[in-house]
């Protein structure tokens, strides 16, 4: 196939075979940007596609205990779009393959949770080195939020999960 990037007959590395936004009216979609993340001590590093499906501030008691804070800002994405690139042997996994929290066993940093039967991960947004395109859009589980914390922004608040 010509211009398929395989170096076959007719391949021109300088030629752009993509169809532009001007021609289709649809915005160009470049290859996904990869974000870096890591724990506090630098023992665990990961990359994740900047293709998050949702981002929220979770106030459930489990997230508060796991992070030691008033809430956990999370960004959800398909599990296969996360790769631990350094220090997988330093991960402390609490749970099983279908649902667990991942911490650095050296410094204790909370990195991500595997959820939805292992299909998705909730990245702890505070562990990202690079800024994601998405921002939290709601507060969830405010029915169990810390009584000493007051939500002061205008994001929607849900007693439990976001409802459709």
TrEMBL record:
Pfam families: GFA. Residues 1-11 have a biased composition (Gly residues). The keyword Lyase applies. The keyword Transferase does not apply. InterPro entries: CENP-V/GFA (IPR006913), Mss4-like_sf (IPR011057). Residues 35-159 form the CENP-V/GFA domain. One of its GO terms (molecular function) is carbon-sulfur lyase activity. Residues 1-31 are annotated as: Disordered. PROSITE patterns: CENP_V_GFA. Coiled coil: none annotated. Keywords: Lyase, Metal-binding, Zinc. Residues 13-25 have a biased composition (Basic and acidic residues). Belongs to the Gfa family. This is CENP-V/GFA domain-containing protein. It comes from Afipia clevelandensis ATCC 49720. The lineage of its organism: Bacteria, Pseudomonadati, Pseudomonadota, Alphaproteobacteria, Hyphomicrobiales.
């Amino acid at each position: 196939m010509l211009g398929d990037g395989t170096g076959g007959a007719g391949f021109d590395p300088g030629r752009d075979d993509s169809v532009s936004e001007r021609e289709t009216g649809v915005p160009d979609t470049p290859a996904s940007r990869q974000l870096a993340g890591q724990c506090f001590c630098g023992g665990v590093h990961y990359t994740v596609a900047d293709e998050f499906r949702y981002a929220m501030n979770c106030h459930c008691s489990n997230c508060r205990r796991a992070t030691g804070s008033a809430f956990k800002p999370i960004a959800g994405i398909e599990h296969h779009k996360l790769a631990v690139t350094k220090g997988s042997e330093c991960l402390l996994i609490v749970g099983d393959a279908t649902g667990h929290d991942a911490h650095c066993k050296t410094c204790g940093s909370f990195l991500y949770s595997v959820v939805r039967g292992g299909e998705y991960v909730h990245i702890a947004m505070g562990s990202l080195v690079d800024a994601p395109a998405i921002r939290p859009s709601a507060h969830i589980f405010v029915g169990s939020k810390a009584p000493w914390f007051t939500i002061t922004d205008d994001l929607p608040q849900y007693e439990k999960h976001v409802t459709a």
